[in-house]
Design goal:
5 helices, binds nickel (II) ion
Length: 183
């Protein structure tokens, strides 16, 4: 009886040890997968930022009021939108709140300087988040859209690429000599 009970407890104990082992193994595998994914997203984010500012750098200061259509943003609004929305989305990833007010600029050189600075700050704050925190859900645009922080970070990249293409077209219409985006 004692032997049977002993083997029963031994089995329970083995099961507990094994499940703890596999849970730990699975969790560390998941964490290292997330860390790799975050590192790759940050590397992409830095690359995209460099390409974007290379295009922004040729925007003429004296054309900030120009727009290709009466319903479209002006060049100045589009340039500031690129800078402000990245700042806001990076802030939202970290704090869960999209800010209401942003600085704005009317000169390309100043705007890029501010964008480089806010980008570096955003990258540092996002990099400091743990893989668990990046999977936590937040509602920066209201309760109807509840998403993990990581999704908001990916949205920042997607949004920048979208508006960068728009800026590229603006500058082409304005007759600017465009840099190549890749390479
Ligand atoms: Ni936008």
């Amino acid at each position: 009886m004692a032997g049977r009970r002993g083997s029963f407890f031994a089995r329970v104990e083995t099961t507990i040890i094994c499940s703890t082992f596999f849970t730990t193994l699975f969790k560390s595998g998941k964490d290292s997968f997330m860390s790799t994914q975050i590192e790759s997203t940050i590397a992409n984010w830095n690359r995209i930022h460099k390409q974007t500012t290379r295009v922004m750098a040729i925007a003429p200061n004296d054309q900030y009021g120009w727009r290709p259509h009466e319903t479209a943003m002006t060049l100045g609004e589009l340039m500031n939108h690129l800078f402000q929305s990245e700042m806001g989305l990076a802030d939202a990833v970290v704090t869960g709140v999209y800010p209401k007010e942003f600085p704005s600029y009317s000169q390309t050189a100043e705007l890029i300087e501010a964008f480089d600075k806010s980008h570096a700050e955003g990258v540092a704050k996002v990099t400091a988040l743990s893989p668990e925190a990046l999977q936590e859900e937040i509602t920066p645009f209201g309760p109807q859209w509840q998403v993990p922080r990581m999704v908001v970070l990916n949205l920042a990249l997607e949004h920048e690429i979208h508006h960068r293409g728009q800026l590229y077209t603006y500058l082409r219409i304005l007759g600017c000599e465009l840099p190549s985006l890749f390479g």
